[in-house]
Amino acid sequence: LSFYNQIELHIMLYELLARNSYVFKNEAWHNFFSLFKWYKPNTDLKNSKTKSSEYHFADVSCLKTEIERYNFKRIVNYLYSKHQAWIEGYWEMIMDDDIISLTKELKKDK
Q1: Element (H, E) at 32
Q2: How does residue 34 score in pLDDT terms, banded at 50, 70 and 90?
Q3: What's the predicted TM-score (pTM) here?
């Protein structure tokens, strides 16, 4: 995991959720994954009815396989151990700006 930067790690982390129809409450992440045909948010999932955000990972029950849960947990643990911003909670503002910029770039390429 040390080969990846923070934005790449977050994309990997959230892609695990997105590929399992996770409903992103964060508009930046929803818009990013909506660029991909395979992203089909399922409003029947438990997380779509809760008030928690992606940043707290209250419900990741959409992850269907053991390997998905393992990879998700491994990325989260790595981020907590290596990036002070995760511990302090201010990374989400920085990450939103990064993902909004990336989304704009990808839209231009289409």
Answers
A1: helix 27-33
A2: very high
A3: 0.73
